[in-house]
Design brief:
Elements lengths: L22 E8 L2 E6 L3 E6 L13 E7 L2 E6 L1 H4 L14 E7 L6 E7 L1 E8 L19 E7 L2 E6 L1 H6 L4 H7 L1
Parallel strand pairs: 2-10, 5-7
Antiparallel strand pairs: 1-2, 1-8, 3-6, 4-5, 6-7, 9-10
Protein name: Chemotaxis protein CheW
Organism: Fulvimarina uroteuthidis
Pfam families: CheW
């Protein structure tokens, strides 16, 4: 991961005299979308490695990897979020992001595949825009909002909502 670029410092809001704690986020790419998760969920970022498939696994579960002697499930986040394109294509930039999700007392470890991992930057929640409204009903519970990274929109994922809400991996498994 690299240090924050000058353009990414635009994620920090101008202070109006009130001190507000900036949070750190990990930015990464899924297909054509730049996403961010709070670093408190990120355990580590790994180079892409072979993922062992699991028989009869739900479509979102790619397989399992070994992380320091522990089997960690790898979820296809693009499929889980119903993103189109680029599935199962790996490049030299492809990374596996190991995440901790859920309440502090029952945290679970999962991994996702990112097409590229950009950097860790600080952001101030005041610069975040609400999810867009466009006249149709859609479930935006998977995201905190939108920001900007250089000239691209940045989707702030609510990773707990993605995996611990109605879209929970266990629920997907039972439905498959």
């Amino acid at each position: 991961m690299t240090r924050a670029s000058q353009a990414d410092k635009t994620l920090l809001a101008a202070s109006d005299g009130q001190e507000e704690e900036a949070r750190q986020i990990l930015t990464f790419r899924l297909g054509g979308t730049v996403c961010a998760v709070d670093v408190r969920h990120v355990r580590e970022v790994l180079d892409f490695t072979k993922i062992a498939p699991i028989p009869s696994a739900p479509a979102n579960l790619i397989g399992i990897i070994d992380v320091r002697g522990t089997g960690v499930p790898v979820v296809d986040l693009k499929r889980k979020l119903r993103m189109i394109g680029g599935e199962n294509e790996t490049t030299s930039e492809t990374r596996i992001v190991v995440l901790e999700i859920g309440p502090d007392t029952t945290r679970k470890v999962i991994a996702i595949v990112a097409d590229a991992v950009h950097e860790v930057v600080e952001y101030d929640g005041e610069t975040m825009e609400e999810p867009p409204q466009f006249g149709e009903s859609w479930d935006a519970s998977f995201m905190h909002g939108l920001g900007r990274r250089e000239r691209e929109f940045l989707t702030f994922l609510d990773i707990d909502a993605v995996f611990c809400g109605d879209r929970h991996l266990l629920a997907d498994t039972l439905a498959a």
